[in-house]
Amino acid sequence: MDLNLDTLKREILEYLDTAGFAVYHGSPGGLEGMPMVLWDTERHPDYQMFLDVAQKCGTKLVVFASAEFDATEIDELLHQLDESELSREDRREYESRLRPIRAYGGITCTLELAFDYHNRLYVYELQPDWYEEFVGIEEEILALVAGDEDPDSDDSLGGYFSNN
To answer: Structure pTM?
Structure first.
């Protein structure tokens, strides 16, 4: 879903304040590697439902994190494309896919809310469609560039495998 996360960010922070939560301003992505359960934002996008669960669990502290999209990330990807061995046509295709995303520079691209309950983090995370598309393109390009850097990665075992 394409959301205006800038407006939603302000709304959530106001709601947290009026609901009496202590807000810990975390770093986006700072929860990686921790045991967590993700809220189903596709079927239940209402952050107030998530925070109601937190209140019913007796939670007083909520982690809040957000990030704004930095258009220089596109420049870095384009630089990596220039350094790659991709054909001109493939590079142009990636450039055309990235071009419209540049307009989102400075706009909130991710929101995260989290609370701890019995040593498990319960997380509400939203990203607009355009940012999910950017992340997908970024992953594709990084995989291609990684393949360019290792010319010996043809899935052979380099003579260490015997057919006997």
So the answer is: 0.80
